[in-house]
Amino acid sequence: TDRLYIAAAITAVSALFALIFKGRTRQIILLTVISAAVGLCAYRMHYDRTLLPCEELAGRKMYLDVEVLDYPTENERGLSLPVRPLNDDVPNVRMLLFDYGYELRDAAPGDSVSAVLKLSSADRIGGEENDSYISDGVYLRIYPGGAVELKHNNDRSLRYLPQRLGKALRDEIRSVFPEDSHGLMLALMTGDK
Description:
Largest sheet: 5 strands, mixed, barrel
Helix content: 40-55%
Oligomer: single chain
Shape: extended
Order of helices and strands: HHEEEEEEEHEHH
Strand order of the largest sheet: 1-3-4-8-5
């Protein structure tokens, strides 16, 4: 489990190789090797602080209050929406809430959702390692295990202004462009896939 720390130590010790060279070459080798060692250690510390606590929660069902971070994304199977926990006993990481019953269709940034939720690892899907969620900053996938309570937040603070502006732009694009081309226009103008 400490392979990254060992790799960082080996990388740092290999800086001794730079002593063979002089001048600018030595500086470049030292800078590269030390940067690699620091990067490996930083990655491992992030893994220990973020991903490990989430892995320990995977498979559990618990009552959670979560704050909605963006508007739901809808597909043929249901909705997904990014949330963060409001409970203290859960790591404060970004999670993706999947709603197959379309109960959260009206959710908006700043709203809160309360429910018994099943927590699943974001780096394993069907027993296979997968880093697509982790690369998006999502560390847990969560699924409702019963009734879901959505509390709307009517506070129009500036905190979620970018999400509201993005939704307004997406809605305007969908209304202006024909259905066969609004997907391309959304991708070009907003970066949405």
